[in-house]
TrEMBL record:
<protein>
    <recommendedName>
        <fullName>Beta/Gamma crystallin</fullName>
    </recommendedName>
</protein>
<feature type="signal peptide">
    <location>
        <begin position="1"/>
        <end position="29"/>
    </location>
</feature>
<keyword id="KW-0732">Signal</keyword>
Length: 126
């Protein structure tokens, strides 16, 4: 599912010590061409933001322990991975950004891990 909101988006600028692991392999094969999935394996929510096109597009929030799959929107050239650490006083935190499009084959799976803003990591499998 893809959420669409027209308008400007405020982004947080922050330094992060997140670890990146990019593993090619068959794990994403089931996703299919032009598909992406975000899984929140830590104790915080996460989501994907699609860069490109004329309107802001993002996945819905993936709650801790949950995954959300989506089709990469037309015009996308990059995807940002975001975390939100406190639902009562939202603190959104950028984890990484990577290139992707509707032609990305066989698809992308993103996993976020950790328990707080100081304990965060992610992996990207294509």
């Amino acid at each position: 599912m893809v959420k669409r909101v027209i308008g400007a988006v405020t982004t947080a600028v922050a330094l992060t010590a997140a670890a990146v692991v990019v593993n090619p392999g068959s794990a994403a094969a089931a996703m299919g061409k032009g598909r992406v999935q975000i899984c929140s394996k830590g104790t915080y929510q996460s989501w994907l933001e699609f860069e490109g096109g004329l309107e802001y597009q993002a996945t819905y929030l993936a709650a801790p322990g949950k995954c959300i799959a989506a089709t990469i929107p037309s015009g996308t050239y990059a995807i940002k991975v975001w975390a939100i650490f406190d639902a009562t006083k939202p603190l959104k935190w950028p984890l990484t950004r990577f290139g992707a499009s509707t032609q990305t084959d066989p698809g992308v799976k993103v996993f976020t891990y950790g328990n707080n803003i100081l304990d965060q990591s992610f992996s990207i499998t294509t």
